[in-house]
Amino acid sequence: MIRLPPFRYLAPRSVEEAVAMKAEHGREAMYVAGGTDLYPNMKRRQFEPQVLIGLRGLEELRGVSNGGGFTIGAGTTLSEVANHPQVQRQYPSLARAAGLVSSPPLRNLGTLGGNLCVDTRCTYYNQSHAWRKALGFCMKKDGDVCWVALSSPGCLAVSSSDCAPVAISLGAQLRLIGPQGERMIPAEALYRNDGMQYLALRPDELLVSIHLPPMLGWRTSYLKLRRRGSIDFPILGVAVALRLDEDGTCAEARLVLGAVASQPVSILEAAGLLIGHRITADLVNEAAEMAARRAKPLDNTDMGLSFRKKMARVYVARALAEAVGG
User: Fold this and answer.
1) What are the residues facing 243 on neighbouring strands?
2) Structural domain 60-117+158-212, CATH architecture
3) CATH of domain 1-59
């Protein structure tokens, strides 16, 4: 049996106290909410914090509120997001993405903020400590080689969040609080194309809430590719958001791919191709082909990379067609 290593667990009574605890303990400490990704990683010694700062008791991190758009607390569970009637009605792609993460028991524990910040994944990294030690470890933890591409100067672990591509496609803003105060950033600015340092958070910052703008006139979709119908992380995610005029002309378009790089990838060229036109089947196929050229999966997740690249075209076309028809 793989067991958790010893650690201290701190239970702050407010966000400010949690941030102060993180500042006090520095790199030895990590935040934990649902723990559905952190605890397994700790068992495999991929994370080795001496202190965990528990966020589950902080009511200020939970809930969905409506006011000029929606605000969702980062500690709101994925099940709550997926099943919230107003989220389902106004942000159906987010409700679907949250509902496709893992399995019902884990969605009852896992949080929206946790999924937005979930660790990048790789075949050579997401293994037991003994497996990784036998290989000589990898660049992401304890080693100095990226086994996906031996000549790579950086880690190529893959972004594996379902909700991140959707948050970007919806134009979400993220509220962060740290020792220096708070700031708002676009969802896209949270991510770096670096499998190791994949989040652009300042030291000790905490993601507190997600702010979604009004989506009147927008149509959205999210599709996920994985081997099984449950449990599995995405090996491709496609988030689409389209604003159509009354005559069907596309006024704005956003298209974001997940699980094809170390960060979600906005396909600006394909989205731009749609703007100013009525979206026909031919235009959908042209945009899907263009998006697939930007998808460059590597041999570090489930299924073959050539299959996953082909499915990028298929899933983009399906997501666009669903959004237009929605």
Assistant:
1) 218, 252
2) 2-Layer Sandwich (3.30)
3) 3.30.43.10
